[in-house]
Amino acid sequence: MKKVITGLVVLFLMIVLASLFFLDLNKKQDNNLEKVRLAEVAHTIFYAPQYAALSQGFFEDEGLDIELTLASGADKVTAAVLSGDVDIGFCGSEATIYVYNGGEKDYLKTFAQLTQRDGTFLVSREKIDNFTLEDLKGKTIIGGRQGGMPEMTFEWALRQNGIDPKSDVDIDTSVAFAAMSGAFIGGQGDFVTLFEPNARKRSRFRKK
Predict the structure, then answer these.
(1) What are 175-183's contacts with CB under 8 Å, separation 24+?
(2) CA-to-CA distance for 93 and 108, rounded, in angstroms?
(3) What sign for the dihedral angle of Cα 7, 9, 10, 16?
(4) What is the full per-residue pLDDT of the chain (208 aa) written as tens digits?
(5) Which residues have a Cβ under 8 Å from the Cβ of 5 and sit 6 or more positions away?
(6) Nearest one of 103, 166, 178, 168 to 139, comparing CA atoms
């Protein structure tokens, strides 16, 4: 009986030691991954390939350990990269131009294109049947930070459709990027430009 007990104890200790060995081995392998600190301008469906790669471990397969953080607004992403808090930022390319024109010696560099279109959607407070851009005339739209890519793209789209963004509509650029949906829910503006999934979520607060 004692031999059986002794054998079970030895077997248990061997299992524990083997488990510790493999845990230590995995830890060493993880330490071989190159850490990349990444800041994204928004959590949006347009970055879905990135989220899929993160969840499926594709970056680890390539030897990368991605540390993802949210820095709402291109200005916040730019500040994070310039300060060294992150290595790479996902945001509009206008940020690199502003930094370069500002005379920064250690300016940012755009090295990859992620999307081919602006990712914002126009959300209305009132339900409008057969909506056209003409319905925006005389209305207030929370458009985002002045000089930001979403706001500039929105102005371009208006001009392309014969609407003067300076005289035909009132584009509110005073609301910070991260506060736009909250301001709209609070009653500010007739329309707001939002990324998905916020656009779909916030559309529930429209008047019927």
Answers:
(1) 175/142, 175/144, 176/72, 176/73, 176/145, 177/41, 177/42, 177/72, 177/73, 177/74, 177/76, 177/144, 177/145, 177/148, 178/72, 178/73, 180/142, 180/144, 183/142
(2) 10
(3) positive
(4) 555 455 544 444 455 445 545 555 454 455 689 999 999 888 888 888 889 999 999 999 999 999 999 888 888 888 899 888 999 998 888 878 888 888 877 788 888 777 777 778 899 988 899 999 999 999 999 998 888 888 888 999 999 999 999 999 999 999 887 788 888 988 999 999 988 766 666 555 444 4
(5) none
(6) 168
**DSSP assignment string, 140-162:** EEE--STT-HHHHHHHHHHHHTT
Domains identified in the chain and CATH numbers = 34-101 (no CATH), 120-205 (3.40.190.10)
Query: Is 182 within 8 Å of 188 (Cβ atoms)?
Result: no
Q: What does the alpha-carbon distance between residue 169 and residue 122 come to, in Å, rounded to a whole number?
A: 14
- Cα separation of 94 and 203, whole Å? 29
Q: What is the pTM of this model?
A: 0.64
Neighbours of 75 (CB within 10 A): 19
